[in-house]
Amino acid sequence: MIKVTDVNKSFDQFKALTDLNLHVNKGSIYGLVGTNGAGKTTIIKHITGIVCPDSGQITIDGEAVFDNRQIKQRMGFIPDDLFFFSTYNLKEMSKFYKNLYPNWNAQRYAHMVTQFGLSENRKLARFSKGMQKQAAFVLIMSSMPDYLILDEPIDGLDPIVRKLVWKYIVEDVAEREMTVLVSSHNLKELEGICDSIGILSKGHMVMERDLDELKSDVHKIQVAYKNKPSEPYKQLNVLHREARGTVDLLIVRDKREFVEQIILAGEPVLFDMLPLSLEEIFIYELGGVDNEIQNIIF
Fold it and tell me: At 80, which CATH number?
């Protein structure tokens, strides 16, 4: 389990993180969402032990991360800004990783190099940005990490490669209980992949929720009545309501069974519960928190 507790960090006079709390359960995929400058990369550098907080605590499996070699040997990290030794090719880089990570899997490495169609003898500095990202993924996944930390992992990758990347991640989560934290500014990228989501804004956590719970509790409803009752939605937690002719469109946050009970009691002539996308849920959950959140969800 990755646990961040009351973390604060300032750079000179700039407060980058404020009383930040974050929890990633073992064997799950956690999506960290925020616009540029929200603090995603800063907290990731804390979780990976690159930066030490001014106050607060970051632990993995109950152990402090900073200066902890044993934890870092079990962790894979792919930053948004990749680094390779300028004169190294992929084969030479794999030998370097093999010496760093005790669980290095040479068979997986060879298979992934072939599957991704990468040249082992070409200098990594001459790879395109997308190919460099693929190379970084092959190296990290071949180290068989227990914890995988990804910062904007699929930017610059084509759809086929994206699908292959997520396939490896999901399989390792299912088969080895690998724990994944992935940061992105794009909710569409994370829907269908993540078990839980955290939204970061201006260095603090706005919301941290389990996705299944979130989707089961927020509903889009269409309702029409022949004889409309007085205040038919009074008992419901209505996040949004509008009328389209004789049809009411509502976004409601309540248990599905309770919503059905309340609506059906009014004997509607039309009653539909429609699926919501992750983007729509966050729009109505967060409303107009601030312009930064609006940039994420629109």
Answer: 3.40.50.300
Amino acid letter at 219? Answer: H
- Residue 75 placed within a domain: yes
Whether 78 maps to a domain, the answer reads yes
Spell out the residues 6+ positions from residue 265 whose beta carbon is closer than 8 angstroms to its own. none
Tell me the pLDDT of the chain averaged across its residues.
90
pLDDT at 217: 82
- With beta carbons less than 8 A apart as the criterion, state whether 248 and 241 touch: yes
pLDDT digits (tens, 9 = 90+) for 33-80: 877 788 999 999 999 999 999 999 999 999 999 999 999 999 999 998
Q: What is the average per-residue pLDDT within 267-287?
A: 80
For residue 166, what are the domain limits?
Answer: 2-202
For 207, the token pair is: 């919301």
In this structure, what token pair is assigned to residue 176? Answer: 């080895």
- Domain identity same for 104 and 157: yes
Phi, psi values for residue 13, rounded to 5°: -95, 0
Do residues 178 and 275 share a domain?
Answer: no
**Domain C-terminal end among 181, 202, 223:** 202
User: Does 157 lie in the same domain as 60?
Assistant: yes
CATH at residue 283: 3.30.70
Same domain, 97 and 197: yes
pLDDT number for residue 294? 47
Shared-domain flag, residues 147 and 256: no
